Amino acid sequence: MKTISQITTKSEVRNRLILLMFFFFSFTVIVNSQENLITEKWTDNTAFLLPAGKWESGIFQSFRLGLKNKIEVRSYGLLMPILPNGGIKFSVRSGEGVNVATESSVSYPTLFLNAVSFKGTGGLISPQFSFPFMVNVSNTIIASKQIGKSSIANAFAGFSFTLRNGKPDYQSSIDIPNIYQRMAQYYEGVSIKSGISFKGTIAKNLYFEQLVRIILITRTSDNIFIENSGSVMWSAKGSLRIKGGYLFSWGDYPFGYHTQLWPALDFIFGSRTGKTKN
Amino acid sequence: MCGSIRPLKSKLLLMKNKPDFMKRFKKLKFFLFASGLLVFLVISRSCEMPATGFKEVEEGGYIEKDQKAEALIPDSSIVVMTWNIRYGFGRGPWFGDACGYKVIYSEEEILANLELIAARIRQVNPDILLLQEADINSSRSAYVNELRWLLDKTDFNYAVFGLQWKAQFVPSDGLGRIEETNAILSRWKLKDAKRFQLDRRQDQIAIERYFYERYCMLEATVEIPGYKDLVLLNIHASAFATDDTKFKNLKEFKEELDIMSESGKFFVAGGDLNTLPPGSDKTDYCIEDMCPGESFHQQGNDPMHKIGCDYTPEKEWIVSLYDSYQSVITPGQYLSNQEAYFTHTTRPGHFWDRTLDYLFTNNRWRSGASFVRQDFTLESDHAPVGGELILKRN
Question: What φ, ψ does residue A180 adopt, rounded to 5°?
């Protein structure tokens, strides 16, 4: 058995990481039934809403605010100046059994796309391209079933389309895995998304999520993407939660079929967590 | 650490006593196990870094044509050519080297330019082609595999390549994904392809250096029936370094040739050296290469010379190559009429104004058969250079 200092090659490090993750998942199976009220800690991407007056935000996670017991609004605050966006979530069915919510959002990506289209370092898009007026609309329905006090199983489906005054050049897309599929409908087609996720509890103040999502774009090429994300969230102190994990994807990109793994890290903060309305 | 095991065991025992535990456990078990397994299976193939680095020496890539063209046994010589094809952009106004505005070319534009290049290759009909700046999966060239395309549209049967630049996404100027190669195409089978990493620029900040291209040499051996194996070495030396990187690259090239020569190998080597032949009358092209709004050679200009355009300090850098090996264009030929052997210009619409492309051998070139195809003015910003190499019989 090699010690860490003896592990020299990248492939060896990678293989050990794979094993580590594998054992982590096995471990979560064993200890997942710790009794904590997960709906008080982690309801993003579920049919559960934040209670009225409560809010939370992350560096990457959107800002969420519970307006009334059946309404929640959200927005990506960091991007707001260059990518105006907003969304609203309605609780359709709550209480015992399956909870159901719908989520609708709109964004105006033209400003952002034109802002990152420049010559020099940081230019994500060639300055030869300019973007027309575009408004992206997304609608999703989410169903969640709380299992005991410590787990939530979720299923979701939705679609996104773009209203635009002219078609942007197809080659002006940002062809980065995991980003490309979220912008694909700006260029052509409707994006249809569906998936399932599971949130569970590992130990007191330690939670995990596994999510699988498929994204289909209604066009003839560059049109299918499958994503799997896994994350662990530690409810550190007060309302601060630290979330880390990975986002893995496979898809049909303009440059071919491709698999990609990205690390994910976020810091979530907001009102002190309390009982979630359901 | 050990102390925490006992409470955990107790908790697990308690959990097992709960009536709903096993039911929930079974549901979760399958889901999480499947997720973990999925990650386990695919993660090993998904770790492409934002920009790819290379070892000092790596194996090159191989491709070959499905329907092979006939490869005759040569009489006593073969035609060898080198050509920098500029990503298939032709003489278009690219931002990186021609004061252009354009970064991304469309598939139609790339294929039209590749048609021109392929037609010229068929016209010259070389047996071996050293190719520089051939994209195989780059956003700027519409993700056209130029190497595969040229192999299929010419009489070559085999190709090897070494990646000169591989980045998932270059976050500058909208360049995006890049996979650029140096390649060698041949009628006959190629073997032992190796990519040599050339010294990298040290005059860039870390993030720029990380995403910047990795200039390289590509070596392969061609088996020509009835003749001694011929080693082929293709180089693309650093173009815009402001430190001594280009000098080091040329030194590495010469050293590799010396090693081959000393070990009794028979070679032809060349490519885009990005430097001028010794004795060139003109060595400073700052004014010619100046873009609108730029100013050089004036008091207070910083930099005084445009990067990559002043070859004055490089006058002696490839003298040793000429001293040791046979150049396809002899020094005498070049010095007697330099303009006739110019191979490059940065300016769209202008004629060739400097020589950057070379071929050397440790055997002989057939006298009077060398060429610089200066009439190929539309296909690239480099003119192809070639000649007839005398082969060595087994």
Answer: -55, -50
